[in-house]
Amino acid sequence: MPLNLQKNLPAIELLKKENIFVMDSLRASEQDIRPLRMVVLNLMPLKITTETDFIRLLSNSPLQIELDFLKISCHTPKNTPIEHMEEFYKDFETIANDYYDGMIITGAPVELMEYEDVNYWNEVTQIFNWAHTHVTSTLYICWAAQAGLYHFHGVPKYELPAKMFGVFKHTLNDASNPIFRGFDDEFFVPHSRHTEIRKEDILNVPELTLLSESSESGVYMVMARGGREFFITGHSEYSPNTLNEEYLRDVAKGMDIEVPRNYYRNDDPAQGPLVRWRGHANLLFTNWLNYFVYQETPYNIEDIKNLGNL
């Protein structure tokens, strides 16, 4: 079943070219079902690219989804037209009394800053707290994962000696968890970050469950409240060319950047990327939607306020 998206969103035409079926709000209104209500807080600089990445994955589900995009009101993006933000994004104050079945909070290019020095820290933590009581299940991605773990559980982040940049092999700590239904014993995930969270800090918090990690890139997925929060340090949503674009951008700036590890064929940028994470990315989002959103959210959406741990 396709996503119910606001008409004229650029991602619609981009994904139709990939034979991914999405529908606009007019057609969706003709279907007599309650769609899942989803919201994405998009903190990434390239908003349209990030929208397309997540829509691509969310659309690979038999569930109809009504998707909203949320922005930080105190921050003006530099890489997205203001007209796009005004047409397709909501301010938090307009949804503060609403409830959502699922939420995704993206990474942000502020990881080397102290959390409290980020100019939207107060607003983003207000949104974290709101999601805690107004959303059935939330995915925190990359910087948002680190920020959420710090905000709710006091888990610190650590600066890495070099950027964690590439595609890394991961293993399952609990293969029976429904989030991993259909996963192989080993799977790959792209990473692009300058900081990390550490296993020992996660294990010191009884409310947290370490679900997956990598011998190269460390902690990958942490669960809280039985699946009402997932904290994910990598970027399973990345399209095949994203790391290449990041690498070429940094090279053009004259930055001292290493070739992303395990990404290009034979580690040679001229040979292009070897894509080996999309299958598990689709499983991850489909499993999350099915087992932790659709099967747990109440039909009367305002009853989310009465949910305990899943």
UniProtKB/TrEMBL annotation:
Keywords linked to the UniProt accession:
Acyltransferase, Amino-acid biosynthesis, Cytoplasm, Methionine biosynthesis, Transferase
Tell me which CDD domains the record gives.
GATase1_HTS
Residues reported to bind substrate: 163, 192, 249
For the site labelled Important for acyl-CoA specificity, the residues are 111
Determine if S-adenosyl-L-methionine is one of this entry's keywords. no
**Annotated compartments:** Cytoplasm
Q: Where is this site: Important for substrate specificity?
A: 192
Q: Name one Pfam family in it.
A: HTS
Active-site residue list = 142, 235, 237
Q: Name one GO biological process term.
A: L-methionine biosynthetic process from homoserine via O-succinyl-L-homoserine and cystathionine
Describe the reaction catalysed, as an equation.
L-homoserine + acetyl-CoA = O-acetyl-L-homoserine + CoA
Q: Which InterPro entries match?
A: Class_I_gatase-like, HST_MetA, MetA_family
Give the molecular function GO annotations. Answer: homoserine O-acetyltransferase activity; homoserine O-succinyltransferase activity
Q: What is its EC number?
A: 2.3.1.31
User: Mostly located where?
Assistant: cytoplasm
Functional pathway: Amino-acid biosynthesis; L-methionine biosynthesis via de novo pathway; O-acetyl-L-homoserine from L-homoserine: step 1/1
What GO cellular component term, any one, is given? cytoplasm
Quick check: keyword Nucleotide-binding in the entry? Answer: no
Specify the domain of life of the species encoding this protein.
Bacteria
The record's annotation in PANTHER family points to: HOMOSERINE O-SUCCINYLTRANSFERASE
Kindly give the HAMAP family that the UniProt entry links to this protein.
MetA_acyltransf
What family classification does the UniProt entry report for this protein?
A: Belongs to the MetA family.
Biological role: Transfers an acetyl group from acetyl-CoA to L-homoserine, forming acetyl-L-homoserine.
**Protein's UniProt name:** Homoserine O-acetyltransferase
- The source organism is Parabacteroides chartae
